[in-house]
Amino acid sequence: MSPPLQPPDAHPLGVVTDGPAEPTPLVFVIGAGPVGTALAGRLTRARVPVLGLHAGRPELLEAAGAASGVLTSAGQLPATISGCDVIIIAVRDARIAEVAQQLVAGKLLRSHQVLLHASGSLASAEALGAAKS
Asked: 98 near 70, Cβ under 8 Å?
């Protein structure tokens, strides 16, 4: 006997929730290299809205946009970052603190936002210290 059919939006593990679903956060990814592009693409395919993918190097824009399906930008960090709920910094480890400082200096961070980095070797206090307050 086969399992009962589930609607297309049903949770894959059959989890039932009471009430409305939590709102999905708006995400912005800084870093259009392999890690940032992959994160942006996977989040998009998981139906998480990714507002943008920012490249420090403009030559990465076309490939990153095509691979992730996300709108890309280069140059100055865009003001749209301020409207996101989650900001993921996916640049080289040596540049994470610099990007955090740029976010602070540009007044692009809000108290409700979650700031993440994709380094496996740096502690958040070290990498994102400029944004702590």
From this structure: no
Taking the C-alpha atoms of residue 119 and residue 65, their distance in angstroms, rounded to an integer, is: 22
pLDDT tens for 56-107 read 888 989 999 999 999 999 999 999 999 999 999 999 999 999 999 999 999 9
Please state, in angstroms and rounded to a whole number, the distance separating the CA atoms of residues 85 and 53: 14
Q: What is the pLDDT of residue 29?
A: 97
Backbone angles phi, psi at 23, to 5 degrees: -65, 145
* The two structure tokens encoding residue 122: 């740096």
C-alpha 124/C-alpha 88 separation (Å) is 12
**Pair of tokens at residue 13:** 């593990």
Across 25-104, where does the E strand assignment appear?
27-30, 50-55, 72-74, 86-89
